[in-house]
Amino acid sequence: MDIKFINPFVSGLLNVSNMLGLGGMQRTGVSKREKLQTDHDVNIIIGLVGGLQGNIVFSMHESTACNIASTMMGGLPVSQFDLMPRSALCEMANMIAGNSVSNLEQMGSLVDITPPTLVSGKNMISLISQVETLVLQFNAKEGALEMNIAIEG
Question: How many angstroms separate the CA atoms of 93 and 117, rounded?
């Protein structure tokens, strides 16, 4: 995976987080996995097609997802991870991916994104792709989240 393609996604996440008022989003770690696999309660998958092919997965615990949705909805308490917070999280992922592909386009790489797919459940492992994956950990006042970047080829 070419590292030059990572920064547009980091910038996309940080830009959108600031726009949405998420508190102090900071990168706290980085690691690699042999395949795109997550074990958190909530996973939002965005496919990449065109100049880059692969997947981006935002992964977090349900409590973080509820906290992020609450912030996005102006502080309205979110006690259940039902349709409204799920929709908010998908919209956030879509905004981040859109911002990221705009950054990639400025680098000369034309990339399209698929609509977000949200997968959630307790004690679940999601195996999404057999491609080496870069895992970036972030933390904000709403909680911790991972951005998994799996670019093919």
Answer: 10
Domain that holds residue 28: 3-152
Beta bridge pairs of residue 38: 126
pLDDT single digits (tens) 55-95: 999 999 999 999 999 999 999 999 999 999 999 999 999 99
Could you tell me the CA-to-CA distances from 105 to 53, 55, 64, 101 in Å, in that order?
A: 14, 17, 31, 6
Name the domain count of the chain. Answer: 1
Quick one: angle between helices 83-106 and 62-72, nearest 10? 80
Instruction: Look up the CATH number of the domain holding residue 130.
Output: 3.40.1550.10
Residue of 141, 128, 121 lying closest to 37 (CA atoms): 128
Q: For the whole prediction, is pTM greater than 0.85?
A: yes
Q: Which of 21, 143, 26, 140 is nearest to 75 (CA)?
A: 21
